[in-house]
Design a protein that fits this description.
single chain, 450 residues, alpha+beta, two-stranded antiparallel ribbon, 17 helices, 38% helix, globular
Length: 450
């Protein structure tokens, strides 16, 4: 119903029945808000002789304006507004139930198809389409090469490259990079796949109750996994164990800050976007695809973060450059340990998990709670790509891990993208490019047979 009432069709209907009445009431009685929710709540209060305090407590109206609303309710105009509201609901039901010719979104070349459908059904139809966003960035200079904010602009105008969604396991490589580069943990170190708990009083985690996350499949094998295996199979258990070894999440937040995900960024209510809680190690925070793709440039660029930039330069009519876009670049990860992380990311999509692409390539999938978001982040020497897939609202989702995981929802998008690049000989993409060679000592670090 909320989706229906957000539509242009409904807003036009609303204005026809209530627009002028609302304006007059607001001017005459000083009521600052007279939305449908306010009208409906006032009608309900009047019917049951309820209290005005309840409307204040539930944030329907503001306390200092109660007397204004009381004056409205006692006036003849209130009956007119109630009748208009009831008439609007009747018209809404009739108009949105009536089947009419219309154009709806479709994946064909036109981007739409012509159907006979009721507005109610068209809203349901459009919400059944998953949304997606895609970003491709040159890690060496931050230049954005591709930016796709949704699946069809004419019908879905929200830019999901900049929407904040939980990132799931795509954050784990930064947890591993912190453990290896800052805490000195060997990538060959083995830990048991069991349930670990962070409890109140543990180190500097500042938790007020026990936190004992499970693996994605709700199972623990009891087997030992080194960091390569832990990242490949995306074991939450191994990640939590690493965080316990670190003793706090501040080191992870510092790492994220170094790759462009600010530790100080906050919502309007003051809550940090990257909070000081251990669950951030499993991606329990809302980041944008822009931030995530930028962060992954560090892995592809020898440990140096390059901020993605959209505008390279602006020239005036005479060809004079009046603006040059220069990406912020900074060392985020030691080249030696970054080489280890690149090797891990390459291991993630090698062998049976390969993309069928003839270039050096690495990546990480991500899946969030209830399968509301699917992610895949991918690195090559010349391009970092990221994709997010999910519903416009988080309740639009698959019901099983088999259907809703990033491996199924997001990974194929990037696979098809690189396969298309591979077939296009005019694009100029160098499939023979190599990641920077790590410094001396790298081979000893990654040789787990020793």
């Amino acid at each position: 119903m909320r989706k229906n009432k957000e539509s242009q069709r409904y807003l036009a209907l609303h204005d026809r029945y209530l627009g002028s009445l609302k304006e007059n009431a607001m001017d005459k009685f000083g009521v600052t808000v007279l939305s449908e929710n306010v009208i409906k709540s006032m009608m309900r209060r009047e019917k049951i002789n309820g209290s005005w305090e309840f409307l204040v407590e539930t944030d329907v109206i503001q306390k200092h304006l109660v007397e204004n609303y009381k004056k409205l309710e006692k006036s003849p105009q209130w009956s007119v507004i109630k009748n208009a509201y009831d008439a609007l609901q009747t018209a809404f039901e009739e108009e949105f139930s009536r089947e009419i010719p219309m154009k709806v979104f479709d994946y064909n070349e036109k981007g739409y198809k012509e159907v006979v459908m009721s507005p109610f059904d068209s809203v349901r139809y459009h919400n059944q389409h998953l949304q997606g966003s895609f970003l491709a960035v040159d890690p060496r200079n931050g230049h954005i090469k591709a930016w796709v904010g949704g699946v069809g602009f004419n019908y879905f105008k929200y830019d999901h490259v900049n929407s904040r969604r939980q990132v799931g396991s795509t954050i784990k490589p930064f947890v591993y990079a912190t453990a290896i580069s800052l805490m000195g943990i060997s990538p060959c170190q083995e830990y048991e796949d069991i349930q670990y708990t962070i409890a109140p009083g543990d180190a500097n985690f500042l938790v007020d109750k026990e936190w004992s996350p499970s693996n994605a499949n709700e199972e623990f094998t009891g087997n030992k996994y080194n960091l390569y295996q832990g990242l490949l199979y995306s074991k939450n258990s191994i990640t939590v164990r690493l965080v316990k070894e670190m003793g706090n999440v501040d080191v992870i937040r510092e790492m994220l800050d170094n790759v462009g995900i600010s530790k100080n960024l906050a919502y309007p209510n003051g809550i940090r976007i990257v909070p000081r809680v251990p669950s951030i190690c499993l991606g329990a925070m809302d980041l944008t695809l822009y931030e995530m793709t930028g962060a992954y440039t560090a892995f592809a660029n020898d440990g140096i973060y390059s901020q993605p930039i959209f505008v390279n330069r602006i020239e005036d009519k005479n060809g004079k450059v009046i603006y040059s876009g220069v990406a912020k670049r900074q060392r985020a990860i030691n080249p030696l340990y970054n080489g280890v992380m690149v090797d891990m990311l390459k291991n993630n999509i090698g062998g049976q998990f390969g993309l069928g692409i003839h270039t050096e390539i690495g990546g990480k999938t991500g899946t969030t709670n209830d399968y509301a978001d699917g992610w895949f982040m991918c690195i090559t020497p010349e391009l970092v790509t990221g994709v997010w897939v999910g519903g416009d609202d988080k309740w639009i989702r698959f019901l099983t891990l088999d259907d809703g995981q990033g491996f199924v929802m997001a990974r194929p998008v990037i696979q098809k993208f690189y396969q298309a690049l591979q077939k296009d000989t005019t694009i100029g993409f160098d499939f023979n490019a190599q990641f920077p060679e790590p410094p001396a000592g790298y081979l000893d670090l990654v040789d787990c047979s020793k």
